[in-house]
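Annex B.
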Amino acid sequence: MCAVAEDRHWDIVIVGAGMAGLATAIWARRLGLEPLVLEAAPRPGGQLNQIRGRIFDYPGLDLPSGEALTERLMRQAAEAGARVDLGRTVRAVSAAERTCLTSEGPVTGRALVIATGLRARRLGVEGERALYEGNWVRRPSHDLPWFRGRRVAVIGGGDRALENAGLLLPVAREVHLLSRGPLRARTDLSAPVLANDRLVHHERARVGRFDVRPDGVTVEVHQADRVWPLEVDAVCIYIGNEPNSQLVAGQVELDPEGYIVTDRFGQTSVPGVFAAGDVCTPPAYQSLANAAGQAMVVAKRIALSL
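Thioredoxin reductase: predicted structure tokens.
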């Protein structure tokens, strides 16, 4: 399923192998269409890979993790005969021509579906690039044993920040929670975390810069009228996400936050170009159930219009 696609036209070219992209491909095959899914990452799933606990936001679906859901989606896609190319980067898109320029050549579809999801928002401060390049930004949901005995800064005040701070508390030596203002997380997440003696909450604190060394990181913290250094061994950043709409920016209509604007059928401002999932959904309405429903609507709309 990772081989290079033939130089041919497909009914639907789908960019992204997360929930929305794979569900679109599955529905497309059910409707008798030939879809091709292009995924830059070496494994499918997108943000599903960040869900380490049970699936809660898809009624009737009881699975232990996002990885388990991805495996089921890939199995269904394979059984349906959908083509999924992993590790195939889309470098550019021509929305008008419904063509993707990939690392192995151009691919054109009778319809194009953008299902590229979200990316983590960056702080935009000095030293942040070196922080990522040095692998000092870690995810407890992926690397929890690595955090044992270490000092960790968790940046953010929402649900994901508090959830991951809670994961760290049993293993980390110190957990410092930095939030720009009052916490936005649900009380059931924040209360037990804040009650733990290993956690220090620095409220109304912002990061001025990161100084990265071979043996650790110094976080320059700005808090009220004081600037002070926080020495840590790892940083976890949870300040929200941004839509991965850059491939079609300037070609299809985007809203002020960068989300792709669609009609009720997932059609963008360019005929034949559709979007599904988080890349076109405001944060308050993002969910697995919504992504799957949008995928069905998009696939059916394309089937009816081709």
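The chain is about 25% helix and 30% strand. The chain has a mean pLDDT of 93. Further annotation is deferred to the next reporting cycle.
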